[in-house]
Amino acid sequence: MSRRRLLGAAGVAGAAMVGASACASAEGRPKPQDVLRGRVVAQTTEIPEGGGKVIVQGKLVITQPEKGDYRAYSAVCTHSGCTIQEVTETENIHCLCHGSEFDIATGEVLKGPATEPLEKFSVTIDGTDIVLDKSDDS
Ligand code: FES
């Protein structure tokens, strides 16, 4: 094996080890949404009827498909993990990374490359507060 080839192989192995350790350190951490359980994540006045809003810090998308009906989804795209960036005027949750679109009422995939729906979370409305439920069973 030439010296150049050997160095290239070592670089690939090193990058793989860095990637593996980055993944390992992410395991066991709470999801951003879990940290927000039981807390106010948005105000009803911020969420347009027939649309939604991305709560970037909490990695959440809050939608209002029908008047007074609020839904919450993970803003982590199921395709490759980008943070969802917008809820479009066509009433879809839209990931700009590769163009996946999700339904604001169900979180189901409307357009790939994603094949899995967004993770759903339960919310409770208290006045104008949208509170992320402590568990999704409530
Ligand atoms: S990460 Fe969202 S479409 Fe690829």
TrEMBL record:
GO molecular function: 2 iron, 2 sulfur cluster binding; metal ion binding; monooxygenase activity; oxidoreductase activity, acting on paired donors, with incorporation or reduction of molecular oxygen
Keyword DNA-binding included in the entry's annotation: no
Needed co-factor(s): [2Fe-2S] cluster
Gene Ontology CC: membrane
Rieske domain sequence ranges: 39-132
Keywords: 2Fe-2S, Disulfide bond, Iron, Iron-sulfur, Metal-binding, Signal
Signal sequence annotation: 1-24
Function: Iron-sulfur subunit of the cytochrome bc1 complex, an essential component of the respiratory electron transport chain required for ATP synthesis. The bc1 complex catalyzes the oxidation of menaquinol and the reduction of cytochrome c in the respiratory chain. The bc1 complex operates through a Q-cycle mechanism that couples electron transfer to generation of the proton gradient that drives ATP synthesis.
Database matches in NCBIfam families: TAT_signal_seq (TIGR01409)
Name of the protein: Cytochrome bc1 complex Rieske iron-sulfur subunit
Native species: Nocardiopsis mwathae
